Amino acid sequence: MQQDKPILIAGGGIGGLAAALGLAQKGFAVTVLERAPVLGEIGAGIQLGPNAFHAFDYLGVGDAARAMAVYVDKLRLMDAVTAEDICAIDLGNKFRERFGNPYAVVHRGDLHGVFLRACRENPRITLRTGCSVTGYEQDGSIVTVQLFSGERVTGSLLIGADGLWSRVRQQVVGDGPPRVTGHTTYRSVIPTEQMPEDLRWNAATLWAGPKCHIVHYPLSGWKVFNLVVTYHNDAPEPVAGQPVPEEEVLAGFQHVHPRAQDIIRHGTDWKLWVLCDRDPVENWVDGRVALLGDAAHPTLQYMAQGACMAMEDAVCLSHEMAARPGDPEAALEAYRQGRVLRTARIQLLSREVGLHIYHPAGAHAQLRNAIMSAKSDAEWYDTLAWLYGGTGLADGSAARAQAVAA
Ligand SMILES: Cc1cc2nc3c(=O)[nH]c(=O)nc-3n(C[C@H](O)[C@H](O)[C@H](O)COP(=O)(O)OP(=O)(O)OC[C@H]3O[C@@H](n4cnc5c(N)ncnc54)[C@H](O)[C@@H]3O)c2cc1C
Asked: Are 79 and 358 in contact (CB under 8 A)?
């Protein structure tokens, strides 16, 4: 291993920074190359299952992450056509005892900030902005990254954490652009006093309707509410963060209950994304180069797990690198093997959950209501155990013990 050369990470999003932190804590020098002029995240919310908190603990930021989270009491599912409750999964003590950690919602900027502060405080991490990675070369002992500016940066390994449109993936996998799903998501964050009083629930709430849904939950110490609404309108082109008027958002929700429509009327400054994902692939590693987070396994948001998976990737990568200090290529391969099936399951299941829970109509929707309302909390916990009990490592309990001991 070229100990004098840092590990290079393309991308300083949640996945890239989590990986930088995990690797630095194992003693590796790391350089993060971020394309944007400033490190940051979009102003919206994110849901975090207990598996995210297992990852925070492993990465040494558990307390900081817990301090900025809002702990929702329930995952609440409403029928957007009738405005009736379908079910509510309790996230209280029994849930926490079962999974060893809470379910929470956070502002993306706050979460990114937790990682950014920890990275800035770690002398082994160098953070560089305005560095757009365009490709790489490797010779068996070092990797040389090309930047858009013409500069070449040399490291011992390259981790491609450069998101959905990853340049590193283009070279590792070469499977072209991501799949445009035709699902259009609109996001708004509003002050809590703008949210109808009778809907200020301490819950991650989903209103599910035919080919559309609405999600809302409180953020940032209840100062704001996150509104995310999605319309499966077969939009043909990818779009990211384009401002749109309220009328355009409402157009996809004319067929749902007035109470559900009303939520949208409280939104302001709506922005639009046309969502993409990919089919799972196995080949995330090319010698001394590996993919991580959305670059490796971009997914629809219907399991609320994309960022959680990126943080689990960071845990697994740093664990495998520490376990094989003299053989980084074997470590990358062990990381790949440890992560492919779990993330493929999320990618494929997210599509199915969108189809059968978020967006069905008629008898399909009635069947959803019948099945989901019949389940007890204990049955839900059993259903979710494979996901929320995980840490990103095959032996999660050992990882937790190791994190606590560190
Ligand atoms: C509507 C929606 C809701 C979601 N809700 C949830 C949720 O509730 N829970 C959850 O866990 N996940 C959720 N996700 C998924 C989550 O947002 C992503 O999975 C996560 O942000 C991926 O992190 P990442 O670091 O891999 O990629 P990104 O966040 O995309 O970061 C990539 C970084 O790389 C940089 N970059 C790009 N190209 C280059 C380059 N060539 N050179 C250098 N740098 C580059 C980018 O500027 C960026 O900083 C949601 C996603 C969507 C769309």
From this structure: no
Q: Which residue has the tokens 């043909």?
A: 236
Q: Which residues contact 389 (CB under 8 A, 6 or more apart)?
A: 50, 51, 99, 100, 396
Q: From the CA of 16, give the closest atom in ligand 1.
A: 25
Q: Write out pLDDT tens, residues 74-94.
A: 999 999 999 999 999 999 999
Query: Looking at ligand 1, which residue's alpha carbon is closest to its atom 26?
Result: 293
- Calpha distance 35→10 (Å, rounded): 8
Q: How far is the CA of 294 from the centre of ligand 1 (A)?
A: 6
**Cβ(7)–Cβ(334) under 8 Å?**
no
Residues enclosing ligand 1, CB less than 6 A?
10-16, 33-36, 46-47, 131-133, 161-164, 167, 185, 228, 273, 275, 293-294, 301, 304-308, 310
Cα–Cα distance, 303 to 225 (Å, whole number): 20
Give the distance (Å) from ligand 1 centre to CA of residue 366.
34
- Decide: helix, strand or coil at residue 134: strand
Q: Are 12 and 34 in contact (CB under 8 A)?
A: yes
**pLDDT tens-digit series, residues 103-125:** 999 999 999 999 999 999 999 99
User: Hey, what are 11's tokens?
Assistant: 């991308």
**Residue of 206, 294, 302, 312 to mutate, ligand 1, most atoms within 8 A of C-beta:** 294
Strand, helix or coil for residue 239: strand
Residue 405 has pLDDT above 60, yes or no: no
